[in-house]
Design brief:
By secondary structure, the chain is mostly beta strands. It has one helix at residues 74-85, and strands spanning 3-11, 16-22, 29-35, 45-48, 53-56, 59-71. The chain has a six-stranded antiparallel β-barrel. The protein starts with a strand and ends with a helix.
Length: 87
C-alpha cells in the first residue's frame, strides 16, 4: 500500500524521523517512526519495497526503513514535536 506524507519531523539527536501518513482514500491515518537517512516532506508518496522499506516518490534511490507504525493520535504527535525541538 502506498502512503501519502501529511507531516514529518526529525529528532536529530536520536536519528529518528517521525511521519504522519495517510492512505490514498484518506480514511486510515498512521504515525510512523523511521531511520532518518532521507528527509521526507508533506506531499511525498511512500511506495513499499521489501522488509519495511519504502521509496520516496517512487525513486528507488531514496529509501527509508519504517521501524514502528501505530494509529495516529494528535497528543502523541504533539509530544514527538516537542521532543524533536528539545522543549
Amino acid at each position: 500500500m502506498e502512503w501519502h506524507v501529511k507531516k514529518s519531523c526529525c529528532h536529530k539527536n536520536a536519528g529518528k524521523l517521525y511521519i504522519v501518513l495517510c492512505d490514498s482514500g484518506g480514511s486510515l491515518k498512521m504515525l510512523a517512526e523511521a531511520n532518518a537517512s532521507e528527509r521526507v516532506n508533506p506531499g511525498d508518496l511512500l511506495s513499499p519495497l521489501k522488509d519495511a522499506q519504502y521509496c520516496i516518490n517512487r525513486d528507488k534511490t531514496r529509501v527509508i526503513k519504517i521501524i514502528d507504525a501505530r494509529q495516529y493520535l494528535c497528543d502523541e504527535w504533539e509530544r514527538l514535536l516537542q521532543q524533536s525541538t528539545g522543549k
